[in-house]
Amino acid sequence: MRKKYTIYCLIIMIYFGFTVQNTNAQLRITEVDPATERIQIKNFGATAIDISSYRLCSKFKYGTLSNMTVTNGLLNLMPNATVDVTVALSGGTAIDDAADMGLYLPTGNFGSAANMIDFTQWGSGGNGRESQAVQNGFWTAGTFINVSAPYEFIGGANDTGVAFWDTLLGANGFDNINKFNISPNPAYTNLNITIPNNIENATVRVFDILGKKVLEKEVGSLQTFTINVGKWNTGVYIVRVSSEDVTQTKRFIKQ
């Protein structure tokens, strides 16, 4: 009887641990603005989760979300909701122009990869807790966001790594209505680019991750067109749309 009870308890503990792990996997850092010390966290899941006691760590400085200033949203994150906070770290440290940012469980050692939920870094590689993020499969060692701040996560709940981060400036003059779209992302054979009707005489340029230009096209009055990327090398590419004195940039992955 004792053996059956022990096995039953073990099953419950495994199930509970798996449920908690999947609940935490819902949470992702989706925006970072070093200039205003602001980050955004999104709940990609179907279950509400109170993140008040969750923690942030940047370059070995840490803080609890409940001790930070909420500028938009609630720390009790509903499904598909976001919350913006002004980051406050130990010693009054601000977010550096070149740094990392890790999201952690309410308890546990910051040096343990098991306690890290999400990670991003910008400006340079090898910052802070990068090694834990690499161990978790969240990040590739030495990679970092190298576009203009603020930064925006453009992926989904299961997407990880620098390839899914872009500049939130997204337009250098374009508003949300004027933003162009690319699909699918990742792309295998064709990449579709859609430009709003009120953007005229735009030029589309595509660069590889090293900055080499692989395509340039004058759009004119075209609003949607397709680029065959089937023979391109796999990797991250940057699509840049320019019109008069404004420019917008987005990334896509060729698989």
Structural features, described:
It is a single chain. With 255 residues, the protein is mainly beta. The chain contains 2 helices and 19 strands. The protein has a 6-stranded antiparallel beta sheet, with no helix packed on it. Mean pLDDT is 83; it is low at 8-22 and 170-177.
| Rounded radius of gyration (Å) | 21 Å
Q: Return the structural class.
A: mainly beta
Mean pLDDT: 83
Q: What percent of residues adopt helix (DSSP H or I)? A: 10-25%
Sheet with most strands: 6 strands, antiparallel
**Order of strands, widest sheet:** 6-8-2-1-11-12
- Structural shape: elongated
In summary, what is this structure?
It is built from two helices and 19 strands.
Essential attributes:
mainly beta; 255 residues; six-stranded antiparallel β-sheet; elongated; 2 helices; 12% helix
Q: How do the helices and strands line up, and which of them pair or pack?
A:
Blueprint: H1 2-24, E1 27-33, E2 38-43, E3 49-50, E4 55-58, E5 61-64, E6 69-72, E7 76-77, E8 82-86, E9 99-104, E10 116-122, H2 130-136, E11 151-153, E12 165-167, E13 181-183, E14 190-194, E15 202-208, E16 213-220, E17 224-228, E18 235-243, E19 246-254
Antiparallel strand pairs: 1-2, 1-11, 2-8, 3-7, 4-5, 4-9, 6-8, 9-10, 11-12, 13-14, 14-17, 15-16, 15-18, 18-19
